[in-house]
# Entry
Amino acid sequence: MPFSKPYTYVDGTVISSTDQNSNDDAAKIYVNQGSIQADYVNEAFDTSDIQRGELDPITNHHQFTSGEVWGRFNDSVARDRSYFTAHTKTNDLVQISNTSQQYQSFYECGDTVVMEHDGAIFFTFGGLVICSSNDVNIKGKWDSRVYLMFATDASPQPQIIQGTRCYVFEETTATASAGTVDPGSFNFTAVTPPPRDDFNQNRRWVQFQWMVQNLSAGTYKFFVAVNSKVEIGFASARQFTMEVFYDEKFVA
# Structure
């Protein structure tokens, strides 16, 4: 049945909050309860295309007709930090090498996706990544790179998605960057002791949004990881979502 609002406004009359609320309430009831099959154009879509989907609150996974959504948010509480270290590399020189790569994934910033059909995945990531000053290795505002990575059954070695590259920097008063990128921060060398900003000025919130397209049906593992050049680092507040969109030809 068509929607019929309780009150119709007339030009030149004062709007009443009671009449407006009445119209709003009627519209809410109609949208959520009053629509029937006859209200829709024949063969345009049917009620099977309008559904709440299935939610798994443990994994924050929500499945819809045309796709699926995974998501997680962590605040800045210390117990939710995701730590990483360069000490897992073979020796001190390798730990800070500009060419060595050993990526460590952030907790709760990834998942395994089973694509039932061909489609695409839209990723959103944001996080505050802290790189503490080295104690054993050379201090040098080292740049640790953050990427979105993926692996498949056919290619289990994780691969980097280049367009998602982010840089996080060692928080130190070293005068120059020893890595491949300089954060461009300033050193307060004339102040003793140095102010807190002298350590924290290299700190950055990093984020990206990226669409991976033309994915064939299959199983994929996606995750956000960092190639650490510092002895102690951690991801503090962070968010990560994956939204799966199936190609239209597969949506019933």
Notes: The chain has two domains: 1-50, 51-250. Residues 98 and 180 are 7 Å apart (CA to CA).
